[in-house]
Each structure stands twice: as structure tokens, then as C-alpha cells.
Specification:
Largest sheet: 2 strands, antiparallel
Structural class: mainly alpha
Order of helices and strands: HHHHEEHH
Number of helices: 6
CATH superfamily of the largest domain: Winged helix-like DNA-binding domain superfamily/Winged helix DNA-binding domain
Radius of gyration: 19 Å
CATH class of the largest domain: Mainly Alpha
CATH architecture of the largest domain: Orthogonal Bundle
Helix content: 55-70%
Number of strands: 2
Distance between the termini: 26 Å
Mean pLDDT: 83
CATH topology of the largest domain: Arc Repressor Mutant, subunit A
Length: 167
């Protein structure tokens, strides 16, 4: 496999690649780009973890457990438990008994947790605008739509993988 580097618009810098190889290389670069995206746009690592937990809980409010948070974050349960405990101590989350099974504790956002999610979303919006300031407005909007679509499709794909419906 040949290494390729790309410009922002996908033009291949290494002309020795065939069009199919260039497309494959570009798609390989997507994973690298996504892994760096959040790391480069948050002010502190703790903000990234906290925001991730709050978003996971918000998406599955009333159904998510610490184990579920761990699975979605791709970390061990003790790691997730420590992070969730910090959010609870800061008043961002609360544990409640599941309505379906009183033995299970589920996580819910508090009003403060929802406010923290909103604060972080506004901060990220401002960072997005700064990063894309040189883009045309239609490019910025199209990218935002595709990124949101990708995220929604990734969630569906992940749920299908977990349920064994992998297609």
C-alpha cells in the first residue's frame, strides 16, 4: 500500500497513484482526520471526556447505565465509572432506579448537565466558525450537514453491529 497525502479538497499530492488508489488513500485518511478532530478543538481533555459522557447520556436518557457509557466510549467500566462519578459529583448527572428493573441504576442529565452540554456546543460552534472562516458559506454549511449525517449513520451502523445486524 502506498502512502498518500491530500490537500483540503482531496487533490492527491502523489501523482503516482491510480484514481482508485487515490480514492482508497483519501478514505483511509478520513479515520486519521476524525481521530484528530476532537483532540484539536477542545481546550482541555477533561472537557472532551465530560462532553462525550453528557452526550451519550442525553442520546439514551432514561436507558443508559455506566456499563452502557463504557461500551459507547470504548473504555473499561472502572474508567467510565470514575468519569461518571465526577459528573455526578459536579451535579451534571444523577443516578436513578430503572423503571423497568429497579435493581439497575440508570443515568440522567440534570439541568446543570444540559446547560453544560449547551455551553460546550456553543463553544464548538465558535471553534467551527473560526476553523472554517476562509471557507465559502455554502462549503461550511454542506460540511456541517455531511458531518451530522455521518454521525447519525455511524450511530445506526454501531447499533446494527451490536445487535448482530451487520449490513
Amino acid at each position: 500500500m502506498r502512502e498518500a497525502r491530500h490537500t483540503y479538497d482531496g487533490e492527491v499530492i502523489k501523482p503516482s497513484l491510480t484514481p482508485d488508489e487515490a480514492d482508497d488513500a483519501l478514505l483511509e485518511d478520513v479515520g486519521i482526520a476524525l481521530s484528530g478532530l476532537r483532540r484539536r478543538t477542545v481546550s482541555r481533555r477533561s472537557d472532551l471526556t465530560r462532553n462525550l459522557i453528557l452526550n451519550i447520556v442525553a442520546e439514551d436518557s432514561g436507558r443508559i447505565t455506566v456499563g452502557g457509557v463504557a461500551a459507547q466510549m470504548g473504555v473499561s467500566q472502572p474508567v467510565a465509572s470514575r468519569s461518571v462519578a465526577g459528573c455526578i459529583a459536579d451535579g451534571l448527572l444523577r443516578r436513578t432506579a430503572s423503571q423497568e428493573d429497579g435493581r439497575r441504576s440508570i443515568l440522567e442529565l440534570t439541568d446543570a448537565g444540559e446547560a453544560e452540554r449547551r455551553r460546550f456546543a456553543l463553544q464548538q460552534r465558535d471553534v467551527f466558525r473560526q476553523i472554517t472562516a476562509a471557507w465559502q458559506p455554502d462549503e461550511r454549511t454542506a460540511f456541517a450537514r455531511y458531518l451530522i449525517r455521518y454521525s447519525a449513520d455511524a450511530r445506526t451502523w454501531s447499533e446494527n453491529q451490536q445487535s448482530g445486524d451487520a449490513h
